[in-house]
UniProtKB/TrEMBL annotation:
Gene Ontology terms for molecular function: monooxygenase activity
Organism encoding this protein: Aliarcobacter cibarius
Keyword rRNA-binding (UniProt): no
Listed transmembrane segments: none
InterPro entries found in the cross-reference section: MOase_MmoB_DmpM (IPR003454), mOase_MmoB_DmpM_sf (IPR036889)
Chain coiled-coil ranges: none
Protein name: Monooxygenase
Gene3D superfamilies: Monooxygenase component MmoB/DmpM (3.90.56.10)
Taxon lineage: Bacteria, Pseudomonadati, Campylobacterota, Epsilonproteobacteria, Campylobacterales
Length: 91
């Protein structure tokens, strides 16, 4: 049985592009599609956005709730805490 594909779309702003680099670094095998004004991520099972990785990429403290500032859409269930924002399918 194949797993479902998690989906995350963020705005292609200056900060969004830096967050995208951190997402790519932390999610092996992720598929990234650059679209007009949007960066779309697809990955089997889950996509993890780690606060520590984004903080390092931005050069400042970053909290997972800040993802809402660039978030366009998700596909899947969401689990968020202080350390990470996860989009996943539990099936």
């Amino acid at each position: 049985m194949s797993k479902s594909i998690a989906l995350l779309c963020i705005q292609a702003t200056d900060e969004g592009r830096v967050i995208a680099e951190a997402i790519k670094k932390d999610n092996e095998g992720i598929i990234v599609s650059n679209k007009p004004a949007m960066i779309q991520f697809e990955r089997e099972g889950s996509i993890v956005v780690k606060a520590q990785s984004v903080s390092e990429a931005l050069g400042r403290d970053w909290e997972t709730d800040e993802l809402q500032l660039v978030l366009i859409s998700t596909g899947g269930q969401i689990d968020e805490d202080d350390d990470q924002f996860v989009v996943y399918w539990n099936n």
